[in-house]
UniProtKB/TrEMBL annotation:
Similarity comment: family membership: Belongs to the SOS response-associated peptidase family.
Top-level EC class: hydrolase
GO molecular-function term, one example from the UniProt record: single-stranded DNA binding
EC number(s) stated in the UniProt entry for this protein: 3.4.-.-
SUPFAM superfamilies hit by this protein: BB1717-like (SSF143081)
Keyword Cytoplasm attached: no
Annotated protein name in UniProt: Abasic site processing protein
Naturally occurring in which organism (per UniProt): Corynebacterium stationis
InterPro entries hit by this protein: SRAP, SRAP-like
PANTHER family: ABASIC SITE PROCESSING PROTEIN HMCES (PTHR13604:SF0), DC12-RELATED (PTHR13604)
Keywords (A to Z) from UniProt: Covalent protein-DNA linkage, DNA damage, DNA-binding, Hydrolase, Lyase, Protease
One of the protein's GO biological processes: proteolysis
The organism's taxonomic lineage, starting at the top: Bacteria, Bacillati, Actinomycetota, Actinomycetes, Mycobacteriales
């Protein structure tokens, strides 16, 4: 589960350019600025790749399938990996049909609540986290959702779901649709063991609060 996340790096395009197989990065509309409390329906960077070219575009966090006629209803900001291939809201994006497809969403970390206390999850080595995502262009706008899977040790105490974080080597197979049987399994142990969790200020519960101190140890 992921309902709030953080992305503050000022070198996002450089990080994207260093991913395996990427030789060129375009961001024709720029990238959203630093944010410490990103919530569903806000704009986030959506990374799509074609051969050696990566394009980064701002998109709405909350998928808008091609058949969506308005913005009514809860935003589709998470997609269960177990049902993305069959659920009507996500199957077109998963299969790459009807003007939709797969993407990657970057983050420095994300928030999760446990026993009513917000916790911040990040990588202990400070590297960016890459989440498997799906994109669509319903209502003539780019939108995206994050794929989630079962949470395993050492993260299962925090929540029973976890975004499907990708190793750098898994990013291209995810985008091209190869190795899906593996990539819809929980986040690899080698990544889970890098995650660092700390309690943070309850001020993160208000989406109007957006400042670096939110991710400080509470």
């Amino acid at each position: 589960m992921c309902g709030r996340f953080v992305l503050f790096t000022s070198e996002l395009l450089d990080h994207v350019g260093k991913l395996p197989g990427i030789k060129e990065v375009h961001a024709p509309d720029g990238v959203p600025g630093p944010r410490y409390n990103i919530a569903p329906t806000m704009m986030v960077p959506v990374i799509r790749v074609q051969e050696s070219l990566a394009q980064v575009d701002p998109g709405r966090w909350g998928l808008l399938p091609h058949w969506k006629k308005d913005l009514e209803g809860p935003p589709l900001f998470n997609a269960r990996g177990e049902t993305v291939a069959s659920k009507p809201s996500f199957r077109d994006a998963y299969k790459g049909t009807n003007g939709s497809g797969r993407c990657v969403i970057p983050m420095n970390g994300y928030y999760e609540w446990h026993e009513k206390v917000p916790h911040y999850v990040t990588r202990s080595d400070g590297e960016l986290m890459w989440v498997a995502g799906l994109w669509a262009t319903g209502l003539d706008r780019l939108s995206a959702t994050m794929v989630t899977t079962e949470a395993l040790e050492p993260m299962d105490w925090l929540h029973n779901r976890l975004p499907r974080f990708l190793t750098e080597e898994e990013i291209r197979p995810w985008l091209t649709g190869s190795m899906d049987e593996l990539l819809l399994q929980p986040t690899p142990k080698q990544l889970r063991e890098l995650f660092e969790v700390r309690p943070v200020d309850k001020a993160v519960g208000n989406v109007k609060n957006d400042y670096p101190e939110l991710i400080a140890q509470s």
